[in-house]
Amino acid sequence: MKDQNCIFCKIANGEIPSRTIYEDEQFRIFLDLAPASKGHALIVPKEHYANLFVLPDELAADAMRLAKRQAADMKEKLCCDGFQLVQNNGESAGQTVFHFHLHLIPRYRNDGQTIAWEPGNLSAEELDAVKAQILS
Ligand code: AMP
Ligand code: ZN
Hints:
Oligomer: single chain
Number of helices: 3
Structural class: alpha+beta
Helix content: 25-40%
Distance between the termini: 35 Å
Order of helices and strands: HEEEHEEH
Low-confidence stretches: none
Bound molecules: adenosine monophosphate, zinc ion
Strand content: 15-25%
Radius of gyration: 17 Å
Shape: globular
């Protein structure tokens, strides 16, 4: 299913041009317009799924397989030093386009980019409480 108001539906299905670096029946991979680093790309399914929670299991598995293959190829071609996979779900997590996508972000020594979080500081009791909540 496609969403007529969704920009990634339009890009993934070729209605809007993109700098495509891979395409198959299920996915398109294209360069991010505001890249965090040289080669920053997005894996986007051609069908509309808003986020990870509604993505079918099989497509999620295929997306990760594709990410692995594409990252290896890009690492070789771009000679990057490291590689980050980022996937945001929900506004609070930084999601701005509500069509599932997986960021492929090549990293270079001294690239000056920060894709990170402030390390927290929970007591053992607090960590135990979190664990209990998740397991409840
Ligand atoms: P997120 O914040 O995880 O939802 O990521 C959305 C990403 O889509 C951002 O990195 C944007 O730079 C990128 N983006 C938005 N519109 C376009 C577009 N038309 N073509 C390529 N990338 C886009
Ligand atoms: Zn969409």
